[in-house]
Amino acid sequence: MLVGHKGIDEKQLRGEKVIEGNGSLVKQKKKRQVCRMGVVVSLLGILSALAACGRTGSGEETAAVPEYVFTYAENQAEDYPTTQGGYKFAELVKERTGGKIEILISAGAVLGDEKSVVDQLRFGGIDFTRASISSLGDILPKMNVLQLPYLYTGQEHMWKVLDGEIGDEFFAEVESLGLVALSWYDAGARNFYTSTKPIEKLEDFQGMKIRVQEAEVMVDMVEALGAEAVPMTYTLVYSALQTGEIDGAENNWPSYESMGHYEVAKYYTVDEHTRVPEVQLVSRSTWDQLTPEYQQIMRECAQESAIYERELWARREKTAMRKVVAKDCQVVELSAEEKQRFRNAVMPLYEKYYLEYMDLIEAIVAVGETE
Ligand code: GCU
To answer: In angstroms, rounded to a whole number, what is the distance separating the alpha carbons of residues 183 and 89?
Structure first.
């Protein structure tokens, strides 16, 4: 029985009008009509469900009941491009498996922060996620190469790398973690933003506390620039900026806007220090339950969802930028010389990561030089 719903009683929930005094007869009559209608509606519901379990108009067997129901963790908001990409993926998979596979998207980090979600995926607690590759770098150091500061000449260069042989090589590497990578999602370029004063030159980093993703390479980068790095979960950044626990952070335009960070850190410095791609992952233990046919469908749907996400991304970057500027965000453009100083400052990172992955980094750079 429906009682005690924040002061709404059963009658109100059903939409029944309460008639005072001698209206009780009318009320009972109405109630009986509602009941009868309810029975008819339920019967119709059961009949149509039975029909759906049976046959379609073309006479084919249909699958009304899913064979698998999977979880999918996403730490961004519902309307964010990556979340929308996840929904597209789930929709395509459902459609192409005739409803046999259902993927339930949980947005807004309700299944946990990115790093712990990745851990859960590795041990089969969550089936799917979309994650920033920063969350993989500490467990798969080679992954850090793909997010080295100023590695790509631009977006096009990054996609050539990821959509080519090098991207495939990384997909294969991910398997050693007990994960299967399905597609690359866009996350644009990351920039610094601060609350106390704008970053206009390298020296401005001195004495600042900048939040970074929980990844060694990100800590190294911010320290090389001269600030104090504060690794922290994404969902805690807003309040840390608000309380002054940190002076700034770094992220792409859509995250800056979507998480409301522009409200508490209005200086945004466009230095595009990193491009950190994102990846759709599935737990190996989930993957191994699927037939090769289902696996193939999953791969195709993930790729299609990535195309969709990249389109949404391009649009959202523009709208996010417009929105924050209209809300008084001060955009700082760096001169070419200053950008070069930022680049030079992070060179020690290249030395640290270059030695082990020299050939790979050279190959990535070479992709950017080809037509
Ligand atoms: C981006 C990315 C998130 C990540 C976040 C962060 O917004 O899409 O997945 O968690 O950066 O800075 O932590």
So the answer is: 11
